[in-house]
Amino acid sequence: MLKTHDLTYTYAGNGPSFRFPDLSVAPAEACLLLGPSGAGKSTWLHLLAGLLTPVAGSTVLAGTDYARLSGGALDRFRGRNIGLVLQRPYFLQALTVKENLLIARRSAGLAPDKAGALHVLEQLGIAHHADVRPGRLSVGEQQRVTIARALVNRPQLILADEPTSALDNRNAARVSDLLRQRAADLGAALVVVTHDQRLKDQFDAVVELRPSTHQENY
Ligand code: ADP
Ligand code: ADP
Questions:
Q1: Which residues form the ABC transporter domain (predicted)?
Q2: pLDDT: is 195 or 57 the higher one?
Q3: Which ligand lies nearest the alpha carbon of 211?
């Protein structure tokens, strides 16, 4: 279960300030964060990912307020509990697809699990690319590898920032379906950020950010 309370962030200098609506996302629930460009969606997702530290408020997952963690403790918590899918695929290009998944386990302090990694690649229909370097795959395939890597540690929370923005319509629909299915199978809470209103119907809960969020009128 993910729960946030009074999550607030201010960019340094004269940067904008945000106070985000409280979120509560249950295991296997899929939540969509919607809003126009500039509304603060990426900022919100980075706070949920522990990549930015809020100036106030809490982000609680499995009883731990990880907004209060830092350094190695935060890295370990994130590696074990949070799967991240960002807008564009990002990999260690010198490694194969399977090795990229195994590294994700190792950096979270988990034991290697080749069978588990292959199983996830199978679930995403890309097991035949396990020994290929990701740079040789199509963008759609690469985004599936990114999702596989986000799932491989069996996280309790999966976060995705415009995960289909680089894909054509057909691939976007497939990748979006896979993400929701696999998250539900794992019993993970899923939070997807998008500006694409068309995705609304596919989610259990929708939270809309207005463009004026940074005037703190929530
Ligand atoms: P969205 O994802 O909804 O498009 P963002 O969270 O990326 O919105 O950005 C929200 C606002 O915060 C924008 O006005 C943006 O210019 C501003 N912003 C983002 N990053 C920074 C930064 N590092 N420093 C100052 N302002 C920033
Ligand atoms: P399916 O839904 O395809 O039947 P499951 O998700 O129930 O598969 O998992 C089957 C087996 O594969 C389990 O024993 C589990 O340990 C392993 N497995 C599945 N997903 C992962 C993963 N992300 N990381 C490691 N092992 C996994």
A1: 2-218
A2: 57
A3: 1
